[in-house]
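Weekend entry, working from home. Most of the wet-lab plans are on hold until the incubator is repaired, so I used the time to fold the two sequences that have been sitting in the queue since the last round of cloning. Logging both here for the record. First:
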Amino acid sequence: MAPTGTRELAHSLALLFRDCIENGEEGRGIIDAARLAYKLYDLSADRHPPPDPLSCKAGCSYCCHSFVAVTAPEAFLLAERFSEHVRDEGAMSVDEFLKRARPLAGMGPTARYDNELLPCPFLVDDKCSVYEVRPVVCRKTCSYSVQACIDGFNKVGGGTVPQDTARQTFGEGCSITLTAALRSLGFPWASYEMSEAVSVILRTEDALHRWTQGEDILAEVQSNVAVPAQLKTAIAEFSDAIS
């Protein structure tokens, strides 16, 4: 069980996310909650710099070929950001995104690794085209060794990528408390495969309104079944505490 101070902080964050969702106009509290999660994560990461330099830099995209799980608010924010810029010169079209996402449908984390490592549909010229609104899992993924990333990408050695523990903790805290807020309000709180969830939202008319009004348009999207039991327990604990 987490220390008392940590539980109290998590409880406060879950309440903050709940208030954000409830007070948003016309269902936009869902998207506002995702933006809030990113802001909180970035503030925490900035105030606790890693003890050693990270190897991550623009153009390094080895981790962008992995399974990415997102909450519904993150998926809606990604879809909105993509739609806002789809008419920009040189921007990817909706059809092109759907084409890129299609091969990933139904592929879980193990299948993604065991088979050909396919890139994220948002990856363009080895750079994230939605970097400003990238999911929490992408924000917290970092590496102290680019060689370890290369070995993992090439399936060599079987070692792990050395990452910053603080960033992992910040990211998990944001995801757990945001998910707890969704659960407390009766919204679906699964963790969805990103490209499938965004694809469904882009194809569905009035997707956000319909979802916030109780139509689970993401019900058929692949969810991340690999969520550890202790995280599910924490989500339930904080959700029940603010319900």
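Second, folded right after the first finished:
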Amino acid sequence: MRIALLSVHTSPLARLGSKEAGGMNVYVYQSARELGRRGIQVDIYTRRQSRVTPTVHLVDEYVRVIQLPAGPAVPYDKNHILIYAPEFVRRVCCFAEHQNLFYDLIHSHYWVSGAIALVLRQHWGIPIIQMFHTLGAMKNTIARSAEETETDHRMAIERYLLHQVDHVVAATPVDQEQMRLHYRADPARIAVIPPGVDLHRFQPRSQRAARLRLGLDADQRLVLAVGAHRAAQGPGSSDPRALYPLSSLARMAPTGQCCADWRCARGTGDGLEQRAAPAGGAAPSDAPQCPCVVHRLTTPGNAA
């Protein structure tokens, strides 16, 4: 079996914590590798964002990342990618034809990839499994400014995809319900498949040993907020009440991405006050230690 996996707007090889590089990149990369371990050939198609990027990057015996041009080979707004969709589709088809590749399935990630998958299905006549990761309609319900609002164009495409692709994967029952609520999707066509955890890396550890490795005070009371950090988005994007009983310092250190220091405005009270003090990213090798060092772990309730 051979799968064409589409992650057009962001590469699974991108440095975590950079723009448009977070949890979805990890999911795409690791799920492709797991499929490869089961003997399934996976080609991950993504947009080339640098002229020095090689066309083909071998991940392992079964998995490749194929980076093809779609407009200028520089980072640009993901909402503009579909302008160059005909070029990207043409290059994907040419690559597959030149290498005499025949795919059994398209697995598209995010709405941009889903739109391109529909065109490729016309060429190849194979089914599409779509995963959205986030929904524009859901993001707009929590947007706090015009800059955070997703376009009507995106939401129209998401609605269309939910009724046109062959099947949809949702990470949680909540995601499935959001698709039904906002886009009137048929729950019977949506499979809930929770993301996995690498139990070789993430497992119970000694808090004292983990703190020693990360250079943290053994008695400091800390909270860890895991998720992509945005300047306009503090821990208030999750439930802040878990932070109040802790000491005045709560370190926000998303594993493998970026982190900043946050201080409680008061030990108890109504809110948190941000202190702009970037602390750099947690190295991937340190990521498994991070959940072990804190008294509380919080994730954004409305992750975008």
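Plan for Monday: verify the second prediction. The helical segments are 23-37, 85-98, 110-124, 136-142, 152-164, 173-183, 207-214.
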